Amino acid sequence: MDPQPDLTPQEIQTLARGAGLSIPPGDLAEVTHRYTALLEQLHKLDALDLSGVEPTAVFPNPEA
Amino acid sequence: MDATLLLAPLTDQAAAVKARTVSPVELTRAYLDRIERLDGRLYSYITVAAGVAMQQAQAAEAELATGRYRGPLHGIPVGVKDQMNTAGILTTGGSSMLSTNIPTSDATVVARLRDAGAILLGKHNMEEFALRGTRVHPYGDPRNPWDLTRIAGHSSSGSGAAVAASLCAAAIGEDTGGSIRNPGNVCGLVGLRPTYGLVSRHGLMEGCWSMDTASPIAKTAADCAIMLQAIAGHDPADSQSSRRPVPNYLATLDQGIRGLRFGVIRELKLDGSADPEVRAAVDAAIAALQGLGAVVEEVSIPLIDLAGVLFVAIADTDSAAVQHERLRTQVAEFDSSTRARLLSGALLPAGLYTKAQRARTLLRRQFMDVLDRCDALLSPMSARPALTLEEETAPVPTKEDVVRRQFGARNFTTPYALTGLPAASIPCGFTAAGLPIGLQVGAGPFAEATILRTAAAYQTVTDWHTRRAPIG
Q1: DSSP state of B407
Q2: B242 in contact with A at a CB cutoff of 8 Å?
Q3: Which residue in A28, B75, B250, B438 has the most C-beta neighbors within 10 A?
Q4: Which residues of chain A approach chain B closer than 8 Å at the C-beta?
């Protein structure tokens, strides 16, 4: 899949508003770097075969 | 009282208390004096509970005088991270927003320390809400006792600094993605993250519910075993608490490691970009374990390369949910790094969050496959020794900088957090400049005894754990 173009700071602010939040102007550049880096890196998961793999948060031990 | 006893391991202090050659009151007063003298340079405590500590010490002394001995923590002064609730004592989570928060009940781990007879000296400084990267700590920036220009790790930084500077005998911190092992690494201590579910989370300020783990940090393997023994075990107040019986960690500590099989994790081997002194120390430590009779082989856990990213996707999203109301109404009161981290986490699409949790399941499978043939896993704790405060708190100017500093550097510690497995940092050397270096030892579910046994065996052929920070 072609990489998606990075979201702009303005688009990130709009996204935040949709989540009921407001990003202070002084933080917008850093939040944008962090968020776009995270999305970019998570696209590496596309290479994994996750079919039939359930999302798991904790791993109960049978003996626990 | 011989003041050098404060620098000694907890086990030595326990022996002295048991033999009645030192009293809990003497020991507590000596620690309070040392904190008063040194902590203005370290900022390891947010609250020193001197009054409570002296009351507890007098009670312990009176009880010991009747002949009742509760065990090796009886009369021993310890500290806890300011993430744990303490009845009647300020509990801030490292945040200015909780500067007047006084809980009405104790966290389970605090209650268990008290039941074991330990004396609570106070609450340790930490990164805001246990989130790595705090730029300005509202209660002072914790300093590394080995070099005051450097950080004491994250996020149980105050606990690492306090134990390394002998401002308490040992401490209980917390590890969500490495927060006890990092301070252990850079402060030259044993910091052990237990299996998820072994230690209660009740009364622990929530960061990421599926990874938060109260964790001991101490000078030696035996000290760490004593602290873990006191806090481990089922707690009905924690929905994820294991009912499994807790073994006697001290009983197996000296069994040696002959014949144990160790896997060296290929994906975490240091390359040419790492600090050469760290590389050499870790290689030497692995060779020392081989010399003690362990069988060492290289193993591969490919998804470790994505562990830092998976951790941020899951932990930052969960933490942002926990902090949502504060983000909405008090956003300016967060530290700038905490704020940026949480706001970024708050925006992650649900589909990607779920995908990260699926990959987490795969990562656990890869670990368990390797642990089918290995008793324990070995890796460096980090590629570099402690960063300076300036390096740690520098701005994040580009996306590439995020990838390097926020994701790649987390690949060492977060795999164990994501998979709920235990791991510890073990002191394995020093740089020429005198900065501690750590080896990470991980194991299968509830195999803390194997980790502690490995650390104890390593201590029989090395003296790193006996060195003390040049302060005081």
Answers
A1: I
A2: yes
A3: B438
A4: 6, 12, 15-16, 19-24, 26-27, 30-31, 33-42, 44-45, 48, 50, 53-61, 63-64
- Counted domains in chain B: 1
- Is the pLDDT at A1 greater than 70? The verdict is no
Sheet holding B295-299, edge to edge: B45-48, B119-124, B77-81, B171-174, B214-218, B190-193, B423-430, B436-443, B376-380, B261-265, B295-299
Identity of the amino acid at B366: Q
Give the closest residue to A32 by CA, choosing from B436, B334, B397.
B397
Residues B206-255 pLDDT 10s: 999 999 999 999 999 999 999 999 999 999 999 999 999 999 999 999 99
pLDDT in tens, B83-110: 999 999 999 999 999 999 999 999 999 9
Residue of B23, B95, B166, B179 marked catalytic: B179
Which CATH number does the domain housing residue B19 bear?
A: 3.90.1300.10
Decide if pLDDT at A63 tops 60: no
Alpha helices in B43-156 (DSSP H): 50-65, 108-115
Assembly ipTM: 0.95
What is the rounded average pLDDT for all residues in chain B? 97
User: Per-residue pLDDT averaged across B186-208, rounded?
Assistant: 98
Vertex B146: Cα angle to B145 and B149 (nearest 5): 80
Tally the residues of chain B.
Answer: 472
In B308-327, the residues whose Cβ lies within 8 Å of chain A are 309, 312-314, 324, 327
Q: Do A6 and B420 touch (CB under 8 A)?
A: no
- Show residues of chain A in contact with B364, CB under 8 Å: 56, 59
| B81 given a catalytic annotation | yes
What is this structure's pTM? 0.97
Catalytic residue check, B95: no
Residue of chain A nearest B361, judged by CA positions: A56
B132 assigned to some structural domain: yes
CB–CB of A58 and B446 under 8 A? Answer: no
pLDDT digits (tens, 9 = 90+) for B362-394: 999 999 999 999 999 999 999 999 999 999 999
Give the DSSP letter of residue B200. -
A&B contacts, CB < 8 Å: 131
Q: What range defines the domain where residue B131 resides?
A: 3-466
The 8-class DSSP code of residue B308 comes to H
Helix axes B24-42, B157-164, angle to 10 degrees: 120
B337 part of the active site: no
In Å, how far are B50, B52, B101, B397 from B89, measured between CA atoms? 11, 9, 8, 39
Confirm whether B286 is domain-assigned.
yes
Residue B472 lies in a domain: no
Beta strands in chain A (DSSP E): none
**Chain B stretch 72-131, residues whose beta carbon is closer than 8 A to a beta carbon of chain A:** none
Q: How far apart are CA B339 and CA B349, in angstroms?
A: 19
